[in-house]
Write a structure and sequence with these properties.
The protein is mostly helical. About 45% of the residues lie in helices and about 0% in strands. The protein is built from three helices and no strands. The N and C termini lie far apart (about 130 Å).
């Protein structure tokens, strides 16, 4: 048995290099904060072996909410103003492309905006027809 170390020679073998991701024994590395007051996760999971209960931040839904608000404003103004209808449609289409998390709100805003445009067109058509009918009726004062 010539490959066995001598009785007093039990150190590390020649040419042995410890792994680079393991700190040397006796050293302590303080945990870093992740911004929520909790230690951040290391290379092998969360610090101290605790599960992380902080999810991802919610995705933005600003355009979708603005589209829905403009769609609701169409019916609060009774369709007299054309600006909320156009804003609801434009913001709804932008929200569909930019905010996948707010898809339902964007579609609701689009539906209300297009419905408001259609109702405004019908009311304006009715008013114009009524004015021309009254002008051509032949009644005189």
């Amino acid at each position: 048995m010539t490959n066995q170390p001598a009785p007093g020679d039990e150190g590390t073998p020649n040419g042995y290099q410890p792994p680079s991701n393991i700190p040397p024994q006796g050293s302590w590395i303080p945990p870093q904060s992740n911004g929520y007051g909790q230690p951040s996760a290391g290379a092998y999971g969360t610090a101290y072996g605790q599960p992380s209960y902080y999810g991802f931040p919610p995705e933005p839904k600003g355009l979708s909410i603005a589209s829905l608000c403009c769609g609701i404003a169409v019916f609060l103004g009774l369709g007299i103003f054309i600006l909320p209808q156009i804003a609801a449609v434009v913001l709804g289409h932008l929200a569909l492309f930019r905010e996948p998390a707010g898809r339902g709100l964007a579609i609701a805003g689009l539906v209300l905006g297009y419905l408001g445009l259609a109702l405004t067109a019908i009311v304006l058509t009715f008013i114009v027809v009524a004015i021309f009918a009254a002008a051509n009726s032949g009644y005189s004062y």
